[in-house]
Amino acid sequence: MPLHSMISARVTGQFYHDLGLSALVVIGTLVMAVGGLWLIRFLDEGRPTPTVDTPLESRSRAYRVLYIGLGLFWILDGLLQLQPAMPNSAFLEMVIAPLLPGQPHWFIPVLGAGIQAWSNAPIFANLMAVWIQLGIGVLLLVGRNRPWGRWALWMTLLWGAVVWTWGEGWGMLLTRYVSWLVGDPGSALLYMLAAVLLLLPDRKWRSGEVSRWVGWGMAVYWVMGAVFQAWPTSIFWTQLNGIFRLAAQTPQPGWISIPLYHLAAWVAPYNSIANGVVSLSMLVLGLLWVLRPYGMFTRGATLVALFLMWWAGQDFGVLGGVGTDPQMAPVLALIVVAAFLSRRESFQLVEEGPIRTPGHMASVNTNSAGKPMGGGT
Fold this sequence. Notes:
Blueprint: H1 9-43, H2 61-80, H3 89-96, H4 108-120, H5 122-142, H6 147-167, H7 187-198, H8 202-206, H9 209-230, H10 236-239, H11 241-249, H12 254-267, H13 271-291, H14 296-312, H15 328-352, H16 358-362
Helix pairs in contact: 2-5, 2-7, 2-15, 4-5, 5-6, 6-7, 7-15, 9-13, 9-15, 11-12, 14-15
């Protein structure tokens, strides 16, 4: 069914009307909150402004890259929810309903409850999604040196769990339709992973521990992708070309869709061979991350593979009028880049020698000559 036939002008108009009213409420609330904070500080000038233990500017470069990237992704997600299809039936029929086939019988009522709740009040539900996602992104970027920046990371875990359950069906991991090519196990899961990494203390980033964990995680990710793709009951042994055909049918510029149509036509007679090649490629990438983590070839092959998946299987995420996020590939690429920067920074610290933090220096008492007290010479 064409997308435009599932979009009602009345529903869309009502949504944008309510969006304007809710924007006034949000802006008014922000003005009162900021004014209240200013008044408190004005009346109590000696009261310090709440800050975090380690401001973002003092964090490692790797941490800052992932932190700012996550904030921007949330803002993009919120903006995508403003598309006309979202408060209409198109969202449920084209984004949520495809999550149901193949799910275990006990999980279908869980998804059904979410579908029913959304369909009962689609305009209100979409407005909530817009403001929650925009709010998380703005809190991350504006509150980078304030406690509410960390609150936004905890909100990422909570809202990410909601999206991963009712918006991504647990990444289709419980079905035989799961494939990393199409964006499984879901970008919301990666948002939560990024939030967990960002909640870690800075020493975990500077010591290289984060990069080691991500390196092993990438190995597991690719090996699991190969297993799912090559599983005997996987539909992709006979229908791999369907991924590319569906991506090509998404409304988009011809220079994107035409190569996908050609790719789908070329793969159709050789689905089994093509699926074997895809599975083997994922397995090789997993072995590279075990044997040569963050090596130049490993990094390059990973980023090339993610781009090809983003194009051929995930259709760049935001196209077609019902895209809710940029899809898994760019989020995973961001995590890999941040982890690589963390690894490089840890090597630089080793070469330069240990850096004494202010807390460490304060623990060393010195006499007037600058020599350590307590028996030092």
